[in-house]
């Protein structure tokens, strides 16, 4: 098998390092490494970007746009982990399980935008319901959750690690302007992005997100059990998105945001009141796994024509 040449632009950062670790042991891949002293040198980045079969961008948005502009050949494909191209024309959204045919679209694309960590939990929960007509596209939703601090990149990791007594739980996004809102609207099928209010916790990695649904008002006649059945049917057979059993329970010990760390899995749970008119869809995943580096490797596998699970299942 010819080894595919992969260059990770931003490999010293939180997401880049994780992707490099996931690819390092693979014998179907040749990693093109940049001299650490030149990692922000534009000419050296241009050389490596153009030498790569696939360039994976793990950079701030402006640097990611710059990298794309530095590519001057038709061969190099791109996976961009930043927010820069997620709703841009000509780019394919890299959430393979999002819709029928999406994995094939990713496999056939040379410009793939890796999804944001927060949007994935929402899109996985809501898109099948909107597509099936169970939930009206105009439903006014809210979305919230907690992420580990690695979600904020190197700077936030350093702030948490060096702080004497970081807050265990810190809400943010309190002006409702988060950079993920455009992709949330674009890929759920909702006519309005939800009211989104995230939080960060004093743990490095992992996330739990919540879509509360007041079905008696948002989708009269729709019951929580039907939502569970629709999601279970939609994701049946998927390796990386699983729907957990419908449970009537006050609390569930397994709902620890760190439970899927270092995996590429996303789990969906549906909870409800006795009548099934008040529901909650919970997504559990690793912000650095399915939320970033795992998804990037899954997309890379698809683009290289490898099995999607290559390097992503526990040994
Ligand atoms: N962390 C997460 O959970 C997720 C992150 N993402 C996205 O992935 C991207 C990377 O995020 P993350 O890894 O967390 O961020 P980090 O800040 O940890 O890493 C970014 C890396 O890019 C480097 N860099 C900055 N500017 C340039 C440049 N002009 N040329 C070359 N390298 C440069 C930085 O170097 P230096 O630090 O020296 O400036 C750093 O090593 C971001 O767009 C982020 O939004 C997406 C999903 C989840
Ligand atoms: C805890 C924390 O700060 N998280 C980041 C999201 C990280 C991420 O996923 O950013 P992109 O997907 O857009 O690259 C935030 O809310 O801005």
TrEMBL record:
<dbReference type="Pfam" id="PF01118">
    <property type="entry name" value="Semialdhyde_dh"/>
</dbReference>
<keyword id="KW-0963">Cytoplasm</keyword>
<dbReference type="Pfam" id="PF22698">
    <property type="entry name" value="Semialdhyde_dhC_1"/>
</dbReference>
<dbReference type="InterPro" id="IPR000534">
    <property type="entry name" value="Semialdehyde_DH_NAD-bd"/>
</dbReference>
<dbReference type="GO" id="GO:0005737">
    <property type="term" value="C:cytoplasm"/>
</dbReference>
<dbReference type="InterPro" id="IPR010136">
    <property type="entry name" value="AGPR_type-2"/>
</dbReference>
<feature type="active site">
    <location>
        <position position="117"/>
    </location>
</feature>
<dbReference type="GO" id="GO:0051287">
    <property type="term" value="F:NAD binding"/>
</dbReference>
<comment type="function">
    <text>Catalyzes the NADPH-dependent reduction of N-acetyl-5-glutamyl phosphate to yield N-acetyl-L-glutamate 5-semialdehyde.</text>
</comment>
<protein>
    <recommendedName>
        <fullName>N-acetyl-gamma-glutamyl-phosphate reductase</fullName>
        <ecNumber>1.2.1.38</ecNumber>
    </recommendedName>
</protein>
<comment type="similarity">
    <text>Belongs to the NAGSA dehydrogenase family. Type 2 subfamily.</text>
</comment>
<keyword id="KW-0560">Oxidoreductase</keyword>
<comment type="pathway">
    <text>Amino-acid biosynthesis; L-arginine biosynthesis; N(2)-acetyl-L-ornithine from L-glutamate: step 3/4.</text>
</comment>
<dbReference type="GO" id="GO:0006526">
    <property type="term" value="P:L-arginine biosynthetic process"/>
</dbReference>
<dbReference type="InterPro" id="IPR050085">
    <property type="entry name" value="AGPR"/>
</dbReference>
<keyword id="KW-0028">Amino-acid biosynthesis</keyword>
<dbReference type="InterPro" id="IPR036291">
    <property type="entry name" value="NAD(P)-bd_dom_sf"/>
</dbReference>
<keyword id="KW-0521">NADP</keyword>
<dbReference type="GO" id="GO:0003942">
    <property type="term" value="F:N-acetyl-gamma-glutamyl-phosphate reductase activity"/>
</dbReference>
<feature type="domain" description="Semialdehyde dehydrogenase NAD-binding">
    <location>
        <begin position="5"/>
        <end position="106"/>
    </location>
</feature>
<keyword id="KW-0055">Arginine biosynthesis</keyword>
<dbReference type="InterPro" id="IPR058924">
    <property type="entry name" value="AGPR_dimerisation_dom"/>
</dbReference>
